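User: I'm curious what two different proteins look like when written out as structure tokens. Can you demonstrate?

Assistant: Sure. I'll show them one after the other, since each token string lines up with its own sequence. Here's the first protein:
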Amino acid sequence: MKLAAVTAGLTQPSATRLLTDRLVEATVREADERVEVQVVELRDLATDIAHNFVTGFAGKALRAAQETVASADGLIAVTPIFTASYSGLFKSFFDVLDPETLSGKPTLIAATGGTPRHSLALEHALRPMFAYLHAIVAPTSVYAAAEDWGNDEGLAGRIGRAGAELAALMRHRAPAKEERLVPFAEQLAALSRET
């Protein structure tokens, strides 16, 4: 199985990346088979994402990240919460992803923030976005406020439950199809033959 983890932390190190890594570990631990993991750090793709918006074309690194998510059997998506919602960088990545990419894909959503007051952002912002993209979102989402890192027992329990749910969803999903991306020049050539 292939597991993609998209993390939108802006600093290094970041609590968002730490939560991502712990969710990956929990999911891999609960899987009944070998899991190949690829982590997509959105902070490294910020410029490529902006260029994609203004040109309509994904650069090489962004295209590779998009293909990582598309070919995965499951997805972990983690964002910091800013102003009671996901970060702009996080949303922008999913805006430049093909709308069908997440259709039927088991997905675990998670977020980090400075205060527990923003924990409902997972339910009012992230869950609706992933439902719109037709992802199969795991029932347990994980929010880690700054104070949760000191209370590791409670956070560890939520991480373990969410990882187990994602692993179960991945086991019961049909394997991802390997699709060949048709280069733009080849698509144009096919169009000119039709006319």
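Here's a second, unrelated protein for contrast:
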Amino acid sequence: MSPDVDPAPGASELPPRVDVAVIGAGIAGTSTALFLRRKGLSVALIEKGRVGGEQSSRNWGWCRAMGRDHREIPLIQESLRIWKRMDGLVGEDVGFRNCGILYLCRTKAEMEAYAPWLEQSERHQIGSRLIAPAEVRQLMPGFRGAVAGALWTASDGRAEPSRASPAIARAFAAEGGTLLTNCAVRALDMQAGRVSGVVTERGRIAANAVVLAGGAWSRLFCGNAGIDLPQLKVLGSVIRTHPIANGPDQSAAGDHYAFRRRADGGYNVAHGGRSTVDVVPDSFRLFSAFLPALRSERKGLKLRVSKRFLEEWRTVRRWSADEETPFERERVLDPEPDGKLLRQAFDAFRASNAAFAQAREHSRWGGLIDVTPDAVPVISGIDALPGFFVATGFSGHGFGIGPGAGRLMADLVAGDDPVVDPAPFRFGRFRDGTPTLIDAGF
């Protein structure tokens, strides 16, 4: 089952030519399109299914600087500045609130493990701090269980995933951009060795530049264009509860659970410590690239063999522009959530606070998260294909940093001074001998 997502209707006709075509209408794609439009460029935002239909509406809804990889900190800080003014930017409420986020600690050792992050927090003036059990209980009345303290960041926030991408897309369309839904891009159009547009299932659109913000689909699309993008998928699973009275406003992660209060008074609940990884053919193709991450994160990954192995084995990897593509056969990725992890998470959630004891499940869903070998996104031009840009591999951080990523990508495409240093996000780091660094972020 997928979450309810606000509608964002698309146009019926394709424009013959635009300055930029953006593929994918999740949080990164819609943000890129809006910022490009605000630079005065003509833009087509093209989505194979519905706006925000995949991971951009299926995530936890956290917008956090706390615990970020040090390379992402400038980007999340820019994103939080955008989130704080997002309602004015798009003309409607996307649910952003500075609620603060806690990482609860059972032991003193867990508290001490956050020391490296506190140094980053101080360097970047984020304001994270360790708090004692009494302050934990003051922030979250009704909290149950033994706790040694928590890492607390008051400046972090939350937003509504089901609202955000559609609201940005509607604002983009209202400002003269062309939004196309249920329209798969089959291939890049090439002339004289550079990108000259896209070929969609409904026809061609000429463009000076093309941005791929395809989430979990990006590796498949790039492979057909001759670009080997090292990216795998991780399954995230979420439960939505019915509204709960007198629950805490803060978001938190504890032992086996994490939660975020929604605008309707219910909560989104997930497992705070583990994610599910289906072993697929790409797991073997990319084994060497992802080995450092596997070693570093093995305790937080639940590896399994499922029907997805055969599904991806049977998925065609090359096609021509006049053939039906995998993007048309599966418009929206809607995987089954991991029931075992959700049971563990929901039990721990209900035991964690008196207000949650009688929580009732409303619905649940799964989402496929696009991950890179170093868990840092690619926001970059592709040198081998002039005019082609990629924004993907957000590794579970995409909702929070999506607006900043969109602004950075718009700067790169337009040739303007980038809002943050783009070097950490360059595609070339996977090809130029740069060691794969797994940061101490979490």
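A detail about the second structure: Residues 398-414 form the longest helix (17 residues).
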